[in-house]
Amino acid sequence: MRVTGGRVKGPMFIEDGLGTKRCLILGLGDVLRGDEGLGCYVLEALAGEPWSAPVFLAYAGNDARPAAGLIHGAQLVMVVGTFDLGGAAGRIHPWTFARFRSHLKWMADECPRVRLLASTLARAEMAGGIPEDICFPWIQPRLIEGYGLSREARRAMWKTVGRIKRRLFETGFLPQEALSVFPLLRVEPGDCHPSWSRRGEYESG
Q1: 115-167 pLDDT tens trace
Q2: Rounded to two decimals, what is the model's pTM?
Q3: Could you list the residue range(s) of the whole structural domain that residue 112 is in?
Q4: Per-residue three-class SS string for the chain
Q5: How many domains does the structure of the chain reveal?
Q6: CATH number for the domain including 86?
């Protein structure tokens, strides 16, 4: 699992016991399976933001269990990934924790990645550190093989980034000036190593 924390060194806020306000954005999926790697690209797009409070970006791949310590005690957790929930490719399904729990059984049966995520959340809950605010922006995939993202997934990725940034601003993790300008990430089909472009305006959709 790869973890970054913007300008803030992550572990100090896990170990100091001071209850510092912090957020975790957890990316799920496999970058070698097309749109399933979308969670990783979302984290790359957010990596250079000027956080107002500690924000941890953790790419967990297919196994979220190493992230249990980051989830414990966080004020806000956003889990970003793809899941086939029906509808058009690229559709964003914004789920609450309650909705995730209500559909967990069949989702876990369908996807081992979700089963491991549920185990991770259960461990945090047993330790008394489950966040009050957990959300799941699931994106409907189209391609599930090869490198890079489909056109629909790329559009959904930028919409998801915009929604995450808005949520972070509303909860005090991101300054207002960061809502409109940020490093653009070029993600092309067949490219598993996206490159940064010049800074540009983001228009939410």
Answers
A1: 999 999 999 888 888 888 999 999 999 988 888 899 999 999 999 999 999 99
A2: 0.77
A3: 2-201
A4: CEEECCCCCCHHHHHCCCCCCCEEEEEECCCCEHHHHHHHHHHHHHCCCCCCCCEEEEEEECCCHHHHHHHCCCCEEEEEEECCCCCCCCCEEEEEHHHHHHCHHHHHHHCHHHHHHHHHHHHHHHCCCCCCEEEEEEECCCCCCECCCCHHHHHHHHHHHHHHHHHHHHCCCCCHHHHCEEEEEECCCCCCCCEEEEEEECCCC
A5: 1
A6: 3.40.50.1450
